[in-house]
From TrEMBL:
Gene3D superfamilies (alphabetical): 3.40.50.980
Gene name as annotated: bamC
Segments crossing the lipid bilayer: none
Annotated protein name in UniProt: Bacillomycin
InterPro entries per record: AMP-binding, AMP-binding_CS, AMP-dep_synth/lig_dom
MF annotations from Gene Ontology: phosphopantetheine binding
GO biological process: amino acid activation for nonribosomal peptide biosynthetic process; secondary metabolite biosynthetic process
Length: 208
């Protein structure tokens, strides 16, 4: 099994398997290192080498995008889910690492930022929370899991017991289809950059 705070890479497209992989790493006491499969091959190679992950979780069709030579687990392989399914008896402490997100690398090589479990909990549960999140909410997972905003989107839904709607890339790139999905799924919480939000407003005005 994993050692406490052992780094595990995960390279996956936005999907239920991606979320399952992240939770599996955390529940095993590990630290996930998200890698966007759309990154250039050189950046993927650098992140895997720099983080020195012991295991890489990925989907089969993404294997050719990496030259990783160590242990791999395929998230889309049914045999990956055939082991004991009960919860592990681990005591993960608040100050243990949860994930490592790499910077954009615009001023040189990307650098890993270390985030602890308590940082995630504090983001969503604190005495200054002005939102009334609850289990009836539907959240969207729109952003790449290499972008910190995805932490708010994913864990907001999971920690409050709400529904998480994973937005496929082809819909994310189409404001008209995304707006239709927001309405049809009765989404109550979604997060956007101002520029994309303005596009949604334009779509709503064009077809109210």
């Amino acid at each position: 099994g994993l050692q406490a705070e052992e780094l595990v890479g995960i390279m996956a497209e936005r999907s239920p398997e991606m979320v399952i992989g992240i939770l599996a790493i955390l529940k095993a006491g590990g630290v996930y290192v998200p890698i966007d499969p759309d990154y250039p091959k050189e950046r993927i190679h650098y992140m895997l080498e720099d983080s020195n992950v012991s295991i890489l979780l990925l989907q089969h069709h993404l294997l050719e995008g990496t030259d990783y030579q160590s242990h791999t687990v395929f998230l889309d392989d049914p045999s990956s889910y055939g082991a004991e399914a009960s919860n592990l008896k681990l005591n993960v402490m608040p100050n243990q690492l949860a994930y490592v997100i790499y910077t954009s690398g615009t001023t040189g090589n990307p650098k890993g930022t270390l985030i602890e479990h308590k940082n995630v909990v504090r983001l969503l549960f604190n005495n200054k929370n002005v939102f009334d999140f609850n289990a009836s909410d539907t959240w969207t997972l729109f952003h790449s899991f290499c972008f910190d905003f995805s932490v708010w989107e994913m864990y907001g839904a999971l920690l409050y017991g709400g529904e998480l709607l994973i937005i496929p890339k082809q819909i994310a790139k189409n404001p008209e289809r995304y707006l239709q999905l927001l309405k049809s799924e009765a989404v109550t919480i979604f997060n956007q950059t101002p520029s994309y939000f303005y596009q949604l407003m334009q779509e709503e005005r064009a077809d109210p």
